[in-house]
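Final report, Chapter 2: Outcomes

The project's central promise was a pipeline that accepts a single protein chain and returns its three-dimensional structure in a standardized token representation, suitable for archiving and comparison. That pipeline is now operational. To close this chapter, we reproduce one record exactly as it appears in the project archive, with the input sequence first and the structure output second.
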Amino acid sequence: MEQFQVARAPVHVPAPATNLVPQVPKEPRVSLLKKFDGDRTKLRNFVNQVRLVLRLQPHKYATEETQVGLIGSLLTGIALSWFSSLLEKDSPLLANLDQFLEEFSRTFGERD
């Protein structure tokens, strides 16, 4: 019995895609905020401006540490002194935005 071999065409296997990382939408540029110096009358506007930056640039400030760090970088005067003491003792507030803002508001917010 005679055997026939069937010629097979080479199979083309595409190379794996090298760019499978999902594209992150480009975040808008945001002007740096005016530094907060501890003036109680300016706290609300400062916090709202920070919240806006965090909404517009969620990938840039993806962790609570970077969010609190942004705030710390925007402080001066007595507010910076307060923040520096948190840094020096490695306060857990530095890793929790909500708790940080609560203490920040308690310290620098308007009082009755």
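Archive annotation: Residues 40-107 form one domain.
This record, like all others produced under the grant, will remain available to the consortium after the project formally closes.
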